[in-house]
Amino acid sequence: MKRIVPLLLLVSPQLGCARAQTAPHAVGPRGLFLAFVCVVIVGIIANAYLVSMVRPNDQNGSPRQSSSRGTLELSPLTLGGFSWWNLAMVSLLSLFLELLMIRWISSEILIFAYFKNFVLIACFLGFGLGCYRSRRPTNLLLVLIPMLVLTVLVQLPWDGLRQMMSLLPTFVGASAGTQIWGIPSAVNFPLLAAATIIIVPIFGLIAFCFVPMGQLVGWYLQNSHNGILAYSVNVMASLAGIAIYTALCFLSEPPATWFFVAGALLLLLVWKVPKLR
Fold first, then answer.
1. C or N terminus of the chain, fewer CB within 10 Å?
2. pLDDT one-digit tens code per residue, 55-87
3. The Cα angle at residue 9 between residues 102 and 22, in degrees rounded to 5
4. Backbone angles phi, psi at 74, to 5 degrees
5. What is the Cα–Cα distance from 48 to 184, expressed in whole angstroms?
6. Predicted TM-score (pTM) of this structure
């Protein structure tokens, strides 16, 4: 297990590369409904599990669950305590990952191309929640599970899933027909509700990705002896993350390269933790 975790940090993100553009086969209503149900169930289960990880510890919690989660649990103390280098690395990774998520999700899930601020808000929400929880240990599962679910959602070669996701903008846009064309709301509301049921879990998955980043950055800023210098390091490293991502885009690198760089940065950050080697 200890040897597999660092490998996953580098290999699994590469699955986020752009999928091959192939003409999907015609899918009937039954196939679309099955894909809809699967996405909703998986999204709810994943978000429920992640919520259980960020809740305060329960005195009656299961020891088995604690041991399974503890493998990927870490804190700034396990990373060596306060370090200007770690503050810079986490700040750089946070902005790099934020730009990556905005570009990747908006390109692969078309509904977020129309509502790009949704991804940005999710990133801010997760980062802010992490800062609020900066005194508690974090867990890499908060990053790995959402990334895995989003990657499957984007990459799974299932025609029903692909067409259902491509129809989300149509479901949301159908609500405009009520005012423009006088279409009864009873016809449009179910489509809008169906799109919302899918969008909300995806929003939650994106937010949870940034909880560990906010926890680490918040702890380093809070425990620095020079707040102004720490904030300056945070800003400069964040600008460096923006510059690196901009350079990759300028070189027309595919999403696989973006995720490889993000995984390498994360692996470099947690390499000091003995149980993750």
1. N
2. 766 444 444 455 556 667 888 888 888 889 999
3. 55
4. -150, 170
5. 35
6. 0.82
